[in-house]
Amino acid sequence: MKHDWVCLTSHPAAYETSLPDGRILSIAVVTHNRKQKLQELLKSILESRQIVSMLARIIIVDDSPVRTEVHSDFPDLIDYVWLPDRVFITRAKNIAWRRATTPLILFVDDDNIVNSESVMHLIDIMEQYPRIGAVMPSVSYRSQPSRIWVYSTPFRKDRWSMNLAGRNSIERALPDHDLMNTDALPNAFMIRRSVLLSISGFDEEFIYNNSCDLCQRIKGSGFEVYASTVSRFHHDVPLPGQKGYWADHVAADVQRAFPESRDWTLLMRKIHGKKSVQSPFLYVNFIKWVLQVDLGMVLVRLSSKQFISINISFLRGFLSGAKVKISTYYRK
Q: What integer pLDDT is reported at residue 4 of this predicted model?
């Protein structure tokens, strides 16, 4: 398997101002209707003395219809924001990071388990390399830690999709190198707050899938973005081999079908430019993506009513994304 390895030379870090007691980190979690997974994530964070010693606060933005009671032995570290109306991921992330005051912010999806060694390694990378604006951990499956969910997500050569490095492979030995190139920041990543300020945060034109857009704008601002194979988070999602596992998210949350489709279309247009609407590749890749999800929904035996509703939402999302005026392009 081809990897985009990176070798960096250490530089003295022109590091940002931290709190007097060394609490340089905030953790941002956005959540929707996953109370148990959220609680398990919080437990994995707060049971680590090392993480707590660096942590100013955990900012939780929850747009569930019912307020979640968050239980913690460190209530002073929890900043819980409840939004009774759904705002989806991008806006929730903007709300979260703007409440942070620390130089470093770790965004982590609520269906993860973290550990102190991995979080501290991300901090070490950011301290050692001042030109790195963001870094993501590699990810494995919680129920089978030796199976890789993804190492990194660079573009494929045609830039119509991502190369999911290591996807679903069994890790026989740790990789020889730490940092890999990536063009998206799925699941979890650490970022400098100053970088978020410089690019005005997440672009809310993207409702749900914002990690590739964010990554491209960080690079466009002059910073580097990488994935760390040494830092490892565990993702609590179905293992490959379970019927239709790749459609699990949309089957469990049908409201995400429209924004996911719209965001994919908008992203492809920004990557490939104004003329992409005329390109057959836009339509072919969209159909391929939908058919893959459709197969997953058939295998998990989703009701015909939900199946039809989701596909209508996919089509509406595509048409909506195709109509958006593109004013900003990424540099290749």
A: 53
Residues making up the chain, counted from first to last: 332
* 23 C-beta neighbours (distance < 10 Å), count: 17
Residue of 274, 261, 265 lying closest to 329 (CA atoms): 274
Give the model's pLDDT for residue 9.
Answer: 35
Q: Give percent of the chain with pLDDT exceeding 70.
A: 92
Buried (b) or exposed (e) across 200-226, using 16+ Cβ within 10 A?
A: ebbbebbbbbbbbbbbbbbbeeebbbb
- Please name the amino acid found at residue 70: V
Residue range 163-183: average pLDDT?
Answer: 94
Q: For residues 181 and 226, is the Cβ–Cβ distance under 8 A?
A: yes
d(CA 43, CA 57) in angstroms, rounded, equals 14
Q: How many helices (H) and strands (E) does the chain have?
A: 10, 11
CA distances from 230 to 136, 138, 174, 288 (A): 10, 7, 8, 33
**With contact defined as beta carbons under 8 Å apart, do 27 and 105 qualify?**
yes
